[in-house]
Task: structure prediction
Amino acid sequence: MQDADLLTALVAANEALRSTDPADLDRVVPSCPGWSVEDLVAHIAQVQRWATRVIAAPPGVKVERRIDAPGGPAIIDWFGDGADALLDAFATVDLDHEVHTFVGPRPARWWIRRQTHEAVVHAWDRAHATGTPGAIDPAVASDGIDELLTEFLTPRLVDTSVFAPTGESVHVHTTDVDGEWLVRIAPDRIDVTREHAKGDVALRGPAADVLLTLYARQRVDQTGAEVLGSADVLDRLVAATNF
Result:
């Protein structure tokens, strides 16, 4: 997706999070075990403030991740202020300059994509906790799947031993928008290609349902997606990527 399209999705997700009712802060978030809505809003607020500092930092400077958040209803306005600051940073920094990320040095625009999908999924979490979540745009969801599979499925971030890998493969296919990936698992590496190919298991369905499945937000039987083949391989993949 283009930066402008991602930023549009980020603004929409942030507005949804900013609209959190203070009366809902104590609600449990079923898709994030152990979290309340307040915990969720505090988390995304801290992440966005950290990202703002990262993209503004000089090259090679690692930014302290710990940022204390206020408690209670004040967290909502604090989130909003940080969300505005993040958008201002994206509008003013050189998006091509290299910055720190947790997958190695990347251009600052890498954070647009990361913060968009972080906010989109957590906006869904909050809506799921307080009512009926709205639909995630298929193009945004497909890009979120692509980010998860192509950026984060590395031995640096995923413990390949949880797969008991013997060369299993997972085919991921979105049905409402273009998107196909083949994930090949080996003892020391995970290879992801964008192609139509048969895997030991296939996860197939609308992009939003596939995204929420891969992020362990919903079981497949709670979505419009389907699993064809060895469900155990898919279960191990989801468990390993449940960051």
Notes: The chain has seven helices and seven strands. Residues 163 and 236 are 6 Å apart (CA to CA). The longest strand covers residues 180-186.
